[in-house]
Recover the amino acids of this structure.
């Protein structure tokens, strides 16, 4: 009997290291989330490529096209906090699958449009609503539920997924537009969104408890919380609570400038600005894709830094460096690609969304369990800033004949964002946590 018991104990001891070596399910969920965001990133690669083709075919001004893009960007941000609450109510898998279908419908319908209001309806409203449900609040929800350790790193990796999608689709879409037309490019975006739906439905899970596991790094099993009713009411309640705190306004303000200087400015207007200087659209789009290459490295590194360094200081450094690089851009654009502009692309790429991991870490620090929804509202400010510059940048180009004033103004705004990050106060650590 003793020998049998000892043998069983030895067998159990031998099995235990094997269990420890097994890859935690959280990493598989993170991988599916990464692939999902890559597939959905196709639609975000297209607006900057379409400005000139739509202007030439329909005669719409760049300001009009920029208005449609601004509606898309604004809804992308304003939908995000409600999507985070809907994920608490209906589950991640359902919300993301429906969002991808809405993106596919909106992008596919654009091939039949012939009026500017149809562009605003399809690309602005439908794609904006769908993309908002696939925003960074999705990554924040996955990270908060499945990880208690390595959150900064995972946030960086998932944030970099959008840049990876840009890297994959930008050269392809620009080649399709130049070789064929903008309509096949829009269909490609719709098909990319549809292709991801089966992965989401079959492989994504809402909570570690669904598969009987603890969150990665957790000491104890965490039961799955009951669905939270009143998603819209809860989202607004969290907002009304957050707006009474100073850190929210500083985070929202600095992140609005982040959106203005990335999605609103570079992603929307870099290709037409480079084309103004004689650079072919494919070459300019390829440079924008290179930003995506270095954005992956920069964002993952930022997640690693956020786990180890003070996030306020990281944000200040990121915004300051971004502002300096924008001030030099008007002097770098030329008909051909040359080393100085490549240096700008590498430099800007490393800083593109490196701001996300420290911003999300500050949301967790100040708002705890509501941090995903608060971050959704902070992301809304990011997209409102992006929407304003997408529209105003097009208007400035129509009025001044160049984008120079937009680059300089955005550089000055980044300096203001660096100062805002520095004055965010640290949340006092409870005495009980120190003992």
């Amino acid at each position: 009997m003793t020998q049998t018991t000892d043998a069983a104990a030895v067998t159990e001891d031998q099995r235990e290291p094997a269990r420890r070596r097994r890859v935690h399910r959280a990493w598989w969920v993170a991988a599916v989330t990464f692939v999902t965001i890559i597939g959905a990133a196709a639609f975000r690669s297209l607006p900057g490529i379409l400005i000139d083709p739509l202007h030439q075919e329909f005669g719409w001004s760049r300001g009009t096209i920029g208005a449609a893009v601004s509606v898309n960007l604004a809804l992308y941000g304003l939908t995000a906090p409600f999507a985070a609450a809907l994920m608490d109510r209906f589950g991640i898998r359902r919300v993301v699958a429906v969002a991808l279908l809405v993106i596919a419908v909106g992008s596919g319908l654009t091939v039949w449009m012939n009026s500017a209001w149809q562009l605003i309806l399809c690309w602005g409203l439908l794609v904006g609503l769908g993309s908002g449900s696939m925003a960074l609040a999705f990554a924040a929800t996955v990270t908060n539920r499945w990880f208690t350790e390595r959150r900064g790193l995972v946030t960086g990796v998932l944030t970099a997924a959008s840049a990876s999608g840009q890297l994959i689709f930008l050269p392809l879409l620009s080649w399709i537009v130049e070789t064929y037309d903008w309509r096949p490019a829009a269909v490609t975006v719709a098909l990319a969104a549809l292709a991801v739906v089966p992965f989401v439905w079959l492989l994504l899970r809402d909570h570690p408890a669904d598969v009987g596991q603890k969150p990665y790094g957790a000491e104890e099993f965490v039961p799955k919380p009951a669905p939270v009713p009143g998603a819209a009411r809860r989202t607004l309640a969290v907002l009304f609570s957050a707006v009474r705190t100073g850190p929210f306004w500083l985070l929202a303000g600095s992140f609005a400038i982040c959106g203005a200087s990335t999605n609103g400015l570079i992603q929307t207007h870099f290709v037409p600005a480079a084309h103004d200087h004689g650079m072919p659209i494919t070459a300019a789009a390829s440079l924008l894709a290179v930003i995506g290459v270095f954005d992956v490295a920069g964002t993952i590194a930022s997640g690693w830094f956020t786990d180890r360094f003070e996030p306020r200081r990281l944000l200040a450094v990121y915004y300051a460096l971004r502002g300096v690089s924008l001030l030099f851009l008007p002097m770098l654009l030329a008909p051909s690609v040359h080393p100085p502009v490549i240096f700008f692309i590498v430099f800007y790429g490393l800083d593109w969304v490196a701001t996300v991991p420290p911003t999300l870490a500050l949301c967790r620090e100040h708002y705890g369990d509501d941090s995903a929804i608060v971050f959704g509202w902070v992301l809304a400010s990011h997209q409102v800033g992006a929407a304003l510059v997408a529209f105003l940048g097009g208007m400035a180009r129509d009025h001044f004949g160049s984008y120079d004033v937009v680059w300089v103004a955005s550089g000055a705004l980044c300096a203001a964002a660096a100062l805002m990050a520095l004055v965010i106060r640290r949340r006092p650590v409870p005495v009980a946590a120190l003992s």
Q: What stands out?
A: Confidence is low (pLDDT under 50) at residues 1-20, 429-435. Residues 246-276 form the longest helix (31 residues).
